Amino acid sequence: MKQRLLGIFSVALAAVVLAACSEAVVLNSKGEIGQQQVALIYQAFGLMLIAVIPALVLTVLFAWKYRASNKNAKYRPKWSHSTAIEVVVWGIPCLIIAFLAYVTYITSHKLDPYRPIESDKPTLPIQVVSLDWKWMFIYPEQNIATINEIAIPVDRPVRFDITSATAMNAFNIPQLGGMVYAMAGMQTQLHLIANEAGTYFGQSTNYSGAGFSGMRFQTYAVSDAEFDQWVNKVRQSPAVLNDASYDKLMVKSRNNAPEYFGSVQPGLFQQILDTYMGGRMDPDLVEKAKTEGTSQRQHHHQPRQDEPAPAAVEHAADAGEHGAAEQPAAGQGENAAVEGAQHDGQAHGAAVQH
């Protein structure tokens, strides 16, 4: 019975492991950056096993050797120290940590997402904007744009300039490389390259609302000739990505199908950046804020019926300053001050009667 249960458990465990591997697209990278990241994962995992495997093996051996029924095991209740054990227990983990720190430092700079990829071919720029809940891609050199679909030439570096027009998101193509956040008013970068032709899915890896699970797009890695054909296909679309169409895209929607725009309004990506960037607001938003601010100031500063008008207050202030300038010096005595006060009172009464 025990052997049967053990067999069932082994089969179930193998099925779980195989199912997990089938979805482990990160470990099946098709790009230079992704392959280096996979190598780093295996390297770090192997180094950690140097400490984990001996610990597991020794746990079983110690339990077996020092079991109660083993009469050959020595009983040493006063034992408390072993230099050899101390060296092994502390020395090996310290060496592993030091080596991991070195590898991490080197690879962190080598695999920096902002670092351009060295290649004989020119880098292809693609501007990325995350919306609710879809991805907008602008090809500035080709003057085209798409929704939830991109194409890139094989073996050609790609620079993604990434921002968000709504909530914070994260741009990720698992089989090509790492993940970079998309934030409103900020431009981040990600350099990738596809070394094999194929179709690779992209996604958002940062929760951004109800339609987050549908924020997926297709990435087609194709030859140069096929890329040119794809660009021409997109250019045939009569749709234009301008302010009007962009406003429609800003409306929240889920599970969006790919869309093509045959041309793009110049400077649209920078305009989206400026809309949310502090100190460089969109002119329309600035004018709207000024109008609303003026209206609010007029509302809050409107005088009450029993409150003097601003002109009267200003005149009274000028009169006060003039009177202060004509006040007698302190050495002339109290009588002059009293006479001045009586004179001011008479003038005020005359003004009220008038």
From TrEMBL:
Residues 1-19 form the signal peptide. Residues 315-324 have a biased composition (Basic and acidic residues). Keywords: Cell membrane, Electron transport, Lipoprotein, Membrane, Oxidoreductase, Palmitate, Respiratory chain, Signal, Transmembrane, Transmembrane helix, Transport. Belongs to the cytochrome c oxidase subunit 2 family. Residues 325-337 have a biased composition (Low complexity). InterPro entries: CcO_II, CcO_II-like_C, COX_ARM, Cupredoxin, CuRO_UO_II, Cyt_c_oxidase_su2_TM_dom, Cyt_c_oxidase_su2_TM_sf, Cyt_o_ubiquinol_oxidase_su2. This is Ubiquinol oxidase subunit 2. GO terms for cellular component: periplasmic space; plasma membrane. It comes from the Bacteria. Residues 289-354 are annotated as: Disordered. The chain crosses the membrane at residues 40-64, 84-105. PANTHER family: CYTOCHROME BO(3) UBIQUINOL OXIDASE SUBUNIT 2 (PTHR22888:SF18), CYTOCHROME C OXIDASE, SUBUNIT II (PTHR22888). Residues 121-233 form the Cytochrome oxidase subunit II copper A binding domain. GO terms for molecular function: copper ion binding; cytochrome bo3 ubiquinol oxidase activity; cytochrome-c oxidase activity; oxidoreductase activity, acting on diphenols and related substances as donors, oxygen as acceptor. Residues 18-115 form the Cytochrome oxidase subunit II transmembrane region profile domain.
